[in-house]
Amino acid sequence: MSAIPRLDHPASSVPETDPLILPFERISAADLPRVGGKGANLGEMARAGLPVPPGFCVTTAAFDAFLAGHGDTGSLFAALEALDGRDVEAARQVAESTRAALGRAPLPPAVADAVLATWKEMGPEVSWAVRSSATAEDLPDASFAGQQDTYLNIRGADALLDAVRRCWVSLFTDRAVLYRANHGFGHRGVKLSVVVQRMVLPEVSGILFTADPITGRRGTVSIDAGFGLGEALVSGLINADLYKVDKETGALLDVQVGDKALAIRPRPEGGTWEEHLPESMRRARALDDAAVRELVSLGTRIEKHYGKPQDIEWCIEAGRLYVVQTRPITSLYPLPEPAPEDEGLHVYASFGHIQMMTDPMPPLSLQVWRLLIPFGRPPRGTGDLPVESRSATLAGSRMFLDVTPMLRHPVLGRVLRGVLGHVYEDMARGMDTLTHRPAFQRGARGGWATTVNASRFLIPVMARFLTRLFITEPSVLRPRVEAFSDSLLDRMRARIAAAPPGAARLREARGVCSDLFGHILVLPPNIIVGVIAHRLLGDFSRRGWLGGTQEDLSALERGLPGNVTTEMDLAVGDLADRVRPYPALAKLLRERPFTEALDAARDVEGGPAFIEAWRAFLERYGMRGPGEIDVSRPRYEDEPAPIIAAILGGVGPASAGRAAGEHRAHHGALAARAEAAGERLVAASRRGLTGAMRARVARRLVRLARMGSGLREHPKFLLVRILELVRGTALEAGELLVQRGALAAVDDVFLFRFEELIAALEATPTPDLRPLAATRRDMLRRDARRAPPFVMASDGEIPSLAVRADLPPGALSGTAASAGVVEGLARVVLDPAREVLHAGEILVAPHTDPGWTPLFVHASGLVTEVGGLMTHGSVVAREYGIPAVVSVAGATQRIRTGQRIRVDGTRGFVEFLDGEASP
Q: Does residue 11 surpass a pLDDT of 60?
């Protein structure tokens, strides 16, 4: 082995106050900046008395001295920081040139001397493992596992120093550079320590997870095991044994003996070799029951020490168990909080999936919804603060509804399953999986308290529903709803405005959120009667009591009267009509910032008329926007980019032949076909002696189905308008706090709960909220990378759904949401403010709420990652008559923009006509 080059300058260049070497016994979690995540964990375990092989860390001070030996590192880091994480080839080239440059840097003599001195003191005659330990590694929210290099069975001084150098350089491997770029970690701020640890020469080694990394269950320990060194397992060279154990009882739940074809063994002179195992050994258990129990006990002890589930590397040498690493299991989705008060298994439904907006929300937005939701609230005494729903729990900056009391109730459980089976099939299937677990079955059945709580809401709703079903004239439903909504909005606006700005007005806004649901309870029966009327028509037709075909029943859902979201979308089409004849106006909107373009439009042909129409649009719909259930998200009046993108999608080359008003004509034609279908249903029911009576029933149900379904979006529209009052109050408070120096930006107000803001506004002097705001914003960014489950259990289990057997080869499975088949070019849209959907393209999106639906005017089909038959995108797709498939897992990653696909909205899958699904 060639000699290691050394830095030819005085050792005093290394700061004396920062140690170059730290033994494990002197390291704690607080030393992470000096020894990286791996080193800090090893030191923490050693200090806790856990069986860790002895060793030491070459600190980041030594790494800094190594970088200093290169000279100009500024240009290296500038090239690294310029990477965006999407261009893999660019990252590969920059990483390769960085490694080449650092490979020529000399090793500082002070570092080499310190490493060799400690090595000799601890035992140069044994083998050593040399492992990288980055400061951005084994963190609570990002493990960075496997991003840097490890070298095993190192013997001799030159080999040791060479391994240390190679670990330093491995901070810039292709995978490490890409990982940091993708996850937003700056390259310049990440440093590398090197762990030098006495090499264990094990008979058996593996990985232990103190929570099941596949199902998410916190009560299950999962162990992978193989013969020899653990490198064969982590490198994927063998199929390891799998052992699953109940953490509480110690019962062995599952044993899967893998085909362990080989074992990696250490060589006496250093390095490793692969031993091909005989048949009798490769299929033998690597662990007996006693070893499994010892591992579970150790894993539980380590988890208790760290307070969270751990991913632990272990090995057994001469019958003795060692731990060589532990890190948090960062892939687990957090458990909902607060935790259940009883010991039974609870089931949670994702509020975001129900609302078709799965992004994380800041604390104020989450509190607004916990105040709005009426279920699970403790009684409120006179003068008490508004209370939040205990059924609304939080995890990963999202809200999850504890539906356990309903699921355990003998009647309500069946009702909930039946409704979900129709509304959101995947959620229903997931709940069914969890409720069949023995742990759930052992829980107390929902009793009288659940019945009473549910009755408070269900009895008034049912009474109003029955009145609308049998008595109310359908034509009066819409004017009554609109008059009620406008009146309530005016009352809430006056209530908030009557309080002075600041703390008092925030209190009033909080009270509005708490009281709102009691006011709008009159609206859901209008929606329910529409859904039930449509279902009754279908059931009665199938039983022969009424006439009609399935095609006519489906047609009733199209061109609905009075749908406020559809009316907004048609208004966007009107705006596109005002732009299409004027290329100069379209060019302004396409190329210049909107505020600037709007000013310039005054002097462009067609501009004044467009400006007038735009102002009218904002007057009616300016409070809407993508993700509008989150009060922190900008509205169209704040950020018009989504609407401008929708307008531009309707004026491009694909729309060259489109006539003005074509979108309204299309909607009108759908409405006319629906009315004709309704008449055919009535006519087909008019037969026999009771035909006149059946025809009257059919006509009433048809009218209720159309009118009630058309009112589906009115409660949401009212809610969004009232939430805009709350949003305005919060922003007003944010401005006051910015003026006092308590916040850096007005929008930071959403990072705090009402009580925190009120206390800050009333305190003298006003406390500095900026550090806490930064911490919470960082948490939001981390949570944004999590994929929330649609349903989960209180022990962390996320149910997996069986794959359909009737799929065509290569197709993606989903839920059939709007009948029909369409072929076309896919357009993957992650942000409706940035991507333009052109007329005739198939919209592929993570989810869609009313703020997304202006895109539907141009879409020929719809594919979403979440959703069910009655969620927003599905209903609007049926109204527009475009085929839709929802709940297509990973659709935005597996389908590429420009790819030709077939959307089968009748059978519920997506086929690829051009290429294959991305992995």
A: no
**Quick one: tokens of 563?**
């749908």
> Alpha carbon of 676 to those of 59, 137, 670, 673: distances in Å?
79, 65, 10, 5
Question: Minimal CA–CA distance to 456: which of 518, 413, 408?
Answer: 518
Asked if 882 and 903 touch (Cβ cutoff 8 Å), the reply is: no
* Mean pLDDT, all residues of the chain: 88
pLDDT in tens, 826-841: 999 999 888 889 889 9
* φ, ψ dihedrals at 154, nearest 5°: -85, 130
- Per-residue pLDDT tens over the stretch 705-723: 999 999 999 999 999 999 9
Q: What is the dihedral of CA 154, 155, 157, 161, to 10 degrees?
A: -10
CA 845 vs CA 182, 426, 791: distances in Å: 21, 18, 20
Integer Cα distance of 420 and 415 in angstroms: 9
- Element holding 355 (H helix, E strand): helix 351-355
Query: Which residue, 313, 352, 424, 180, is CA-closest to 786?
Result: 352
Domains and CATH numbers, the chain: 1-198 (3.30.1490.20), 200-332 (3.30.470.20), 347-523+715-784 (no CATH), 812-912 (3.50.30.10)
Is pLDDT at 889 greater than 80 in this prediction? Answer: yes
Identify the pLDDT of residue 48: 92
Q: Among 826, 829, 825, 860, which Cα is nearest to 847's?
A: 829
Q: Would you call 209 helix, strand, or coil by DSSP?
A: strand
Record the pTM: 0.86
> Which long-range contacts does 144-147 make (Cβ < 8 Å, 24+ apart)?
144/37, 144/176, 144/179, 145/311, 145/327, 146/175, 146/234, 147/173, 147/175, 147/176, 147/179
What residue type is 96 in one-letter code? E
Q: Cα dist. 19→69, 119, 169, 193, 869 in Å?
A: 18, 15, 21, 12, 63
Would you call 872 a catalytic residue per the annotation?
yes
More confident residue, 79 or 649: 649
Catalytic residue among 187, 847, 858, 872: 872
Q: In whole angstroms, how large is the CA radius of gyration of the chain?
A: 32
pLDDT in tens, 210-242: 999 989 999 999 999 999 888 778 777 788 899
